[in-house]
Amino acid sequence: MSIPGVDAWLASPLGQYVLRWEQAQFDQIVADVFGYNALQVGLWQCDLLRANRIPFRFRCDSNGSADVVDAYCRLQHLPFATSSIDLVVLPHVLEFVEGAHQILREVERVLVPEGHVVISGFNPYSFWGLRRALARTRSVFPWTGKYISVMRLRDWLSLLGFESRAGAFGCYLPAVSGDRWLRRAHWVELAGRRWWPVAGGVYLLHAVKRVQGMRVITPAWRHGKTASRRLAPMVQRDGQK
Asked: CA-to-CA distance for 194 and 191, rounded, in angstroms?
């Protein structure tokens, strides 16, 4: 993704703080996903599929290093066949690229039935969302994005036939610059995990593509023998039996 300032931010103490948490969460979730093809869309600077054991893993982005990125494209139109990918990870793509709905539709298209998608994003209902709302200028990453709440993202995924699974919130520290301030505010991290767990600055959401299957209706076979009819006595005309 050609987002101004993302490289410098990833190298900063605040960016490293977020990246460490996200990398650990991605490692934990993707380690248990199996298949043949896995795809990371966006944020080519980070290898978020490193813990996955799928044999063919690709990174797709609109720009980036040729040594790392396997496919260049518009993220709204993924160059992969329908139902060909078993796992897709979307690290901070939806809030920084135009056409979030179209990207999700493309992810749904390329995923196989029962395929997995793991999405990370900044939480608008957190210190980070408050910092973005109060920012005088939003020309610096990560305040340039359009933050999407977990509830809204679940609604979007549900409309596309996804079933939300595990999720996680993290990074409760205020969005302060400087490693010294991050160390001083460490108590906020501990308090956030205990007292307001859904107010983390960053979240991960794991969902699975569900496909309605056909239900075969079989005849109601009778396994038992048909009960023999009773013999009715014959009535003669004179009324004698």
From this structure: 5
Please tell me the distance from the alpha carbon of residue 88 to that of residue 13, in angstroms, as a whole number.
Answer: 28
For 199-212, the pLDDT digits (tens) are: 899 999 999 999 87
The two structure tokens encoding residue 86: 């078993």
Q: From CA 9, how far away is CA 142, in angstroms rounded? A: 8
Domains of the chain, CATH where assigned: 6-209 (3.40.50.150)
Task: Name the helix (H) or strand (E) containing 21.
Answer: helix 13-30
DSSP letter at 33 equals -
Q: In terms of pTM, does the model score above 0.85?
A: no
> What are the structure tokens assigned to 82, written together?
């329908």
Task: Identify whether the C-beta of residue 182 lies closer than 8 Å to the C-beta of residue 17.
Answer: yes
CA distance 12 to 211: 42
Place of tokens 């993290």: 170
CB-based contacts of 166, cutoff 8 Å, min separation 6: 29, 206
